[in-house]
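Fig. S4 source data, part A: sequence.
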Amino acid sequence: MIPLTYYLILAAALFSVGLYGALSKRNAILVLMSIELMLNAANINLVAFSGYVTPETLRGQAFAIFIMVIAASEVGLGLALVLLLYRQRGTVEVDQFNMLRG
């Protein structure tokens, strides 16, 4: 059986890469992909802890599936917004979106 620390290290690395991408990238699609990486890191933690704490129940897997459903809807909505902004502004660079400034 693989030790829990390996899963935690993998999830921490995945979350760190996602956080770096979400904070440093200017392309809106890359920001959405980075958020997906962070959600996948949370899923790894949920499944790993569920397998080690209460292996007879599937609570961690159920929460992971719920997060996947939320992530899929987030991607659909996010890509629709990016497509709309690209049609209006001609770019998907996050720095160029200043429509809400007064």
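Fig. S4 source data, part B ends here. The radius of gyration is 17 Å.
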